Amino acid sequence: MTLKISRILHAGYVFECDDTRIAFDPIVENPFSRNCHAFPEVRFDHGQIRKLRFDAVFISHFHDDHCSLESLDLLDRHTPIHIYCLFEELFDMVRELGFVNVQPLAVDRPVHVGPFVVTPRAALDAEVDSMFQVAAEGLNVLNVVDSWIDPEGLGTLARHAPWDMVLWPFQTMREIEVLSPSRAMPAPDALPADWIEQLAVLRPRYVVPSSCQFLQEPWSWYNQAFFPISYRQFGQQVEAALPGVEVVRLNPGVSVVLDREGLRPAAPLPWVLPVGEQDVDYRYVPHAAPPATADIAQRFPALDEAQAAQVRDYLAGGLQDKYRDMELPEDSFFEKPRVWQLTVYDHTGAGTRQRYRIEGDAIALAPGDSGPVSWTTEVPVAKLYGALALGESLTSMYMRINDTVFDAGTEHDLQSADLVDDPLIRCLFNDAFGAYQAAQLRRLKERT
Fold it and tell me: Less Cβ crowding at N or C end of the chain, within 10 Å?
């Protein structure tokens, strides 16, 4: 009774038992999701990958670092693709890519593939993602992916304890804090208490720090501010809190065999090619000084005239139309009259500033002397274009929000404001589903 488990990258895994091979969230691109660079560094042999035959592929949710059409495009079109997603558009896109067997997953409804029973389990945000219970040959593995466990779901998972292995998302990424670094508090030194409490309930033999195996661009200040937990810290704190639990690091391509007796090394995936040192670790700098948005914008190429025109049209009218069509969040900062200042920086670092007067669902262009500004947003124009046309996600936008000091009244109101109430974030990303995959599909179709 043995089970071979191999890490691909990020949340990607291959499970093999007898002659059956299944994959989870296979990402075989570097970089992926626009600006996620494999950490440690690897390359992929796409020629070998095209020859692979998986008995099934399981995708936990629609986020672009888990469901990439560029990666799926390398697979045989008869591969059964099982996806947890509440939006039919994603299934349509995967079918348009040519896959003939694309199936939705449902919580607690098992899927049988040879000796494997794969059961999606409810995640904390059940409208977005799922976890996977993988059972084979009497062994039980919980793949938490990068979701979190709610109390009710923990009760369900506890009934299967002790688990043989848990693939645990070990990084508390600071996606929101980097948007407004001058207002962010440093990350705590200890792991979240509920992680230890939940792992204690699951009682695993082995824990793999999972999901986060990437850095941003080599020049990015995010690499010191985005990832507060190191592999070393995770291993030391989990093993100290939970005697008998062994933390096992799996780098990309690394394989192990799990059985009743324990864990032992196995032949690595031949199509994942390590580059350089592999036992690298994260280094968090609590007060890392961010460069100005103008400097960051100079890292990206100039837009051509058609691309620049698309951005100009959006700022002049499309953004306002989108804002008026949305429902204002409850207790929004913008319930009161506010002046919002949006600055867009081009490839030379030059900024174009535009002000909008906002009150509730109403928005209009405002003159420069329209009164004191009470919310600021900065963004490189290349990234704004990327969000409009290429499915760029918030985590790679290098957006900067309220990174200044306002008058006393505004500062008081901002204490209870939510950064994602930002008008640009809402206009770009609220109700926007599958933009990244749709852009991928357009590019793939153009190639053929």
Answer: C
